[in-house]
Design goal:
- With about 160 residues, the protein is of the alpha+beta class.
- It is built from 3 helices and 6 strands; from the N terminus they run E-E-H-E-E-E-E-H-H.
- Helix 2 packs antiparallel against helix 3.
- The longest helix is centred in the last third of the chain and has 45 residues.
Length: about 160
């Protein structure tokens, strides 16, 4: 898994919201920001709620996950201010510990937000579980296609002998 972008609402509701790409660079170009926000919206609106817990949610659609986690801070109107992470699930499921975990903590620090450690651990654990299930399902589907090819080849071979 690889985090593609992080998003945090400005707590004062006046400043620009913060959005970083996977290299921790600020996404300031409006077209790139809009494409990223559209992808996040698409996954959360049209995807499946893959898992949720106290203060966190994971949405899944095709090759993408969106992880939302509530921070300890609230905006100027007293509303919760979650951090949102867009994740590409094409990479190895083992990468979630190294990549997404470090990137999430770096982003939280950069935007001066805090998350309860057990909440973050639970979110990351569920990302690993869901990605592993998805990888196993994809592997099984690949095996089934391979078996179908062999059966098809055997049937053609038998028919050619008659």
């Amino acid at each position: 898994m690889k985090a593609l972008a992080f998003y945090a609402q400005a707590l004062d509701n006046r400043s620009s919201d913060t959005m970083l790409n996977e290299n921790s660079e600020i996404i300031s170009v409006s077209e790139q920001r809009q494409k990223t926000l559209s992808k996040i919206s698409h996954v959360t609106a049209d995807g499946k709620l893959a898992a949720s817990g106290d203060g966190w949610k994971i949405f899944h659609l095709k090759n993408y996950f969106v992880a939302q986690i509530t921070t300890s801070e609230s905006d100027s109107l007293g509303r919760s201010a979650p951090i949102v992470c867009l994740i590409d699930s094409q990479n190895s499921p083992d990468d979630v510990d190294v990549d997404v975990d470090i990137q999430m903590k770096t982003f939280l620090s950069r935007v001066n937000r805090t998350v309860d450690a057990p909440r973050l651990d639970e979110l990351l654990q569920n990302l690993r579980i869901y990605q592993k299930k998805r990888s196993q399902r994809d592997s099984l589907a690949g095996s089934m296609r391979w078996i179908q090819e062999i059966i098809s080849w055997i049937v053609r071979f038998i028919r050619s002998r008659h």
